[in-house]
Amino acid sequence: MYRIAVLPGDGIGVEIVPQAVKALKAVAARYGHQFEFAEALVGGAACDAAGHPLPDETLALCKRSDAILLGAIGGPKWDQLPVELRPEIGALLPLRKELALFANLRPCILFPGLLHASTLKEEVIKGVDILVIRELTGGLYFGEKKREETGDGGQKATDILTYSTYEIERIVRFAYRAAQQRRGRLCSVDKANVLESSRLWREVVSELAGEYPDVETTHMYVDNCAMQLIRNPRQFDVIVTENMFGDILTDEASMLTGSIGMLPSASIGGEVGLYEPAHGSAPDIAGQNQANPLATILSAAMMLRYSFGLAREAEAVEAAVCSVLEEGYRTPDLVQAGRDDAAIKVTDTVTMGDLVAERIAAQA
Ligand code: IPM
Ligand code: MG
């Protein structure tokens, strides 16, 4: 029996999370597992109902669960709140920090059915399979932040970027082990030509490289990486990088998969893992049954794999997503004007969720 904390959050979060729950229920029925779901408020929804984006009960529920399924948080409605009450700073970052989720895994895989869905050329993205490992509890996100008056009527704002040897070593070792399980190539991304924290990062990686002779180590500056990701993405196997670079590069890399609506994530390293799509709450399409639930469903597959050790069940979910896409079903974000053939069936959030659950149930 596995206990899953369900935190739909805001915007499209409340639409996509139930689709992933449906997929997990289909897995439970098909493979004979018991999942217990307990829902809690987080983000703007929690602010409205309880006055804080991460209520104590929500954090307590997360801590006593085996895994957390999160939708998305934030939205324009809460952007004017004091900084510490905003959903991102008040809920998502403390959740990551409190639960010691230092490793954020974002697999960018192009499903064959989506070869035509990306804005990028087919010959560039065909066969893309990259695992980006983003450090998630350090760097600029968690460094000291302050504002000062400059005396000339203006202000000075500061965000401090810090990394310790310990923090770098722990995420880089994690990435080496992932590379050993894959194609044996690790690219460490930094800005060592400018930043001191990146110089330390590069030194630590270079030192550890000797311990993993079976993995080929390369270093790349982040600006070059941003370019290489769309020039020749197939050169990458595992990418490891610090928090902010990882945030930016993974939004870019999501386009290799067709849409940001396809990019799942697992945040692990502590006692309980957190699984959420890499995208945000998309207020522009919220409440319209238009959002792509696949990143959340694929995040649930990562939960099965990383938190529960259910690899076969994770593959069943991924195979179900793959077949639904090959059958031509698409949420609107996956439709590229002028590049679709007649076989494309544009569908909505709930139907997409139903289709995936049905395919899981029907698996041999
Ligand atoms: C992500 C998101 C978050 C981040 C935001 C919502 C704070 O963009 O998970 O990539 O920057 O980490
Ligand atoms: Mg992001």
Structural overview:
The chain has 12 helices and 14 strands. The protein is α/β, with parallel strands linked by helices and 364 residues long. It has 2 domains: 211 residues, Isopropylmalate Dehydrogenase (3-Layer(aba) Sandwich), CATH 3.40.718; 140 residues, 3-Layer(aba) Sandwich (Isopropylmalate Dehydrogenase). The strands form 3 sheets. A 10-stranded mixed sheet has the order 2-1-3-12-11-4-5-10-8-9, sandwiched between helices. β11 and β12 form a beta hairpin. The two termini are 23 Å apart. 49% of the residues are buried. Magnesium ion binds next to α9. 3-isopropylmalic acid binds next to α4.
Tell me the total number of β-strands: 14
Order of helices and strands: EHEHHEHEHEEEHEHEHEHEEHHEEH
Query: What's the number of domains?
Result: 2
Low-confidence stretches: none
Summed up, the helix count is 12
Across the major sheet, the strand order is: 2-1-3-12-11-4-5-10-8-9
- Outline type: globular
User: What is the name of the CATH architecture of the largest domain?
Assistant: 3-Layer(aba) Sandwich
> CATH superfamily membership of the largest domain, which one?
Isopropylmalate Dehydrogenase
SS-based class: alpha/beta
Mean pLDDT, all residues: 96
